[in-house]
Amino acid sequence: MEQNNNNRLDDLFNQAKNDPAKISFEETKTQFLKSTITIGKVAKGGKLTQFTNFKLILMITTICAVAVGTGMFFNNASEPIIEENNSAEINKNSLTDSALIIEEHEKVITEYFERVAALSPQLLENDTNKRRIKKRKSKIIDKSWFLTENETLDEGIIETIDNYRFPKLNEEQWKEHQKQIKKMFGKVKKNKTKMVGKSGRTLWYQSDPKGFLFIPIGSYIGNVDTISVQSFYMKQTEVTNLEYRTFLFDLLRQDRKEEFLKAKPDQSRWVKDYPWGYNEPMEANYFSHPAYNDYPAVGMSRNGAEMYCNWFTEGLTKVSGGHKVNDVRLPTSYEWEWAAKGGLNKGPYPWGGPHIRNSNGCFLANFKPGFVAGAIGCSQNFKNIYTNRNGDIDSVQTKDDVFIGKNFKNRYSADGGFHMVKTSSYNPNGFGLYCMSGNAAEMVFDKNNEPATKGGSWSSIGQELQIIEGADRFKGLTNPSVDVGFRPVMTYLGRAKERIGTKEFKPFGTKRISNELYMDETEVTNFMWREYLFWQEKTHGKLSKEYKCSLPDTTVWENNESFVKLYFWHPAYHNYPVVGISYEQAQDFCKWRTERVLEYYAIKEKETGRPIYPNNFEYRLPTKEEWESVAEVGYSEKLLKKLNSKYKGKYRTNFSRNESMEESIKKNGVDATGPVKLYWPNNYGVYNIMGNVAEMTSEKGIAKGGSWIHTEEETTVEKDFNYQKPTKWLGFRCVFIVGNSGEIERN
User: Do 510-738 and 203-351+422-494 have the same topology in CATH?
Assistant: First the structure.
């Protein structure tokens, strides 16, 4: 039987050998070359494209071998073939684990490219194909991070230096680049001085840099000594991929190509730093794909980060109207530690406490958890969690009574991010800074002015996240790493002595109107008033006169029984304006708020041993003139364009309109009051200055701005609304007034 099978197999091969070819070799070769050249346009990271290309090479080679009778290849279709050539880097890990490199396959592929190089021009259909083939022969040093989703390789090349092909932005991309520049630096300021102080001196003050937060002067306890730090600005987040790409493209715009090559991130570090992980997609996409725009930029050298800081200084100088600005730079370790503490002296982490999870078991930073306790604690799918004496998790029980074992170690994704996360993830610290621990380790200069990092990264253990005691795995590192990014700072220029400290402290929840006047961003909400009630209850007791006199009159809702019961107390109305408040109650609230902030200042001064400015201020109701000056400013030009185009026809204020309740809810979003940030702010950043609820002024019985029961036609900036008692359409907001010592008298 076996002999018959062998004879039958020989007959089949002889028949295949002697049969004439239905398609000539030259014809097959031409079709094959066309198809593979077209396939070559596809991004080199695609697994399906690579696999298909390899199969075509083997299939055509086999057909040709049978047709001309020169040889036979036996191929196992289940094994993917790996192509190696100078035009692209094919990573073995992107195929299946069983992929093998076969010597014969390499020989076939090598011969194919030799034939491509020797092709006559007649075989090329047009110049485009010719250019593509030449490019396939060149060596690519860096992956094409600059190519967009719809951009071909030809459109992305403008020049080659040392085998590096520089990116080229099309017209639409250049427009987006310019928009991003304005977003990062702001508009160019006119070269004018401002009158300040009683002496009439003219001085220029640098405005706060965009994206940076003011970090006040202060002291904190270091490892041994108490360390004092001067005021400075710090970027609110780590520098993002989008911001760093904008920097690189601006270098190209200025024809600074040598600097570009030094500053560009080395994305190959994703695979080199972590060769055991499947990081090829991160290498190909992390810095270039729009999905990662708001993620921290990593992989640049320390020199590249310093070049970014110099470039940012140049940008601020351009928009300052020609005035000198302080240098943007990398922070010292002392500056970084003070900023990371957020005004808190106790606690090893930016959030203050000694733990890296909150009370719900959710992680507070992006790092490498030893166990997935945080993911379990935040999940609604678990019924019970069983731990050992050390607090480590042994097992968990799901709601379906399924037990999961102890294999929870080194789960990167347990904290919400497998690698990096967005720079504004998790809660900010007391100064408003995001991700001071974890995500990307941040470059600093240590006490000896040597390169170091602080805060740990996405691959750090919990101890490395500590502000002062955290171990620094990257100390002395100047070369690129995918664990290391940066967050610039800028020395504070200071303000004139005659203008005492108005910029050292920005009152919480307010917007700056002038040097001495700040106004609440929103109307006072139900939630704010409940905080006030809670303090009264804890201080004086729930049966006290102080507590009872602070309760709002919920009966102002009259026949709306639901609002009478729920509007003030239900969490759904947290951010709605408080109503049912009398003029006297509003004044008492302002006085209480002033006392609490002064109390906070006293605590801070005792902790730091330094005075905090402004040292004399108060919260109160605005005068009619102050309120009108804010209301008449209108929208910014940028927002106005959107309102007249993208949001054309949308309501901009909460006024009464001649329509049914259903129509009002559909168009206006509400049937009575609305959330305090429901609409768009004016140019000062103040919400609902017109409409929603009329707002009390310092003049008793006079309110301004109209409300949800008034029509827009009957409401103007100048119009006064009279009231005698608490109503459902009346609320208020505070102003913060700065005064030099002795100017403000308190009862």
Answer: yes
Which token pair is 188? 């160019």
How far is it, in rounded angstroms, from Cα 277 to Cα 497?
57
Q: How far apart are the first and last CA of the chain?
A: 115
DSSP codes joined into one string, 335-378? HHHHHHHTT--SSSSTTSSS-SB-TTS-BSSBS--SS-HHHHHH
Strand partners, 736: 518, 619
Q: What is the pLDDT of residues 3-31, one digit of tens each?
A: 555 565 566 556 655 555 555 555 554 55
Residues 6+ apart with CB under 8 A from 412: 368, 369, 418, 419, 458, 459
Q: Say which CATH architecture domain 203-351+422-494 belongs to.
A: Alpha-Beta Complex (3.90)
CATH T-level assignment (fold) for domain 510-738: paralog of FGE (formylglycine-generating enzyme) (3.90.1580)
Q: What is the dihedral sign for C-alpha 481, 484, 487, 488? A: negative
Q: Give the lowest-confidence range in 192-201, 359-368, 637-646.
A: 192-201
DSSP, collapsed to helix, strand or coil, labels residue 690 as: coil
Q: DSSP per residue over 515-572, as a string?
A: SSEEEESSPPBHHHHHHHHHHHHHHH-TTSHHHHHHS--GGGGTT-HHHHHHTTTSGG
> d(Cα 100, Cα 103) in Å, to the nearest integer?
10
CA distances from 237 to 172, 220, 442 (A): 28, 22, 11
Q: How many residues are present in the chain?
A: 747
What's the longest Cα–Cα distance across the chain? 116
Whole-model pTM over 0.85: no
Residue spans per domain, the chain: 2-137, 203-351+422-494, 510-738
For β-strands 441-445 and 517-520, DSSP reports them as unpaired
Between strands 694-696 and 702-704, the pairing is antiparallel
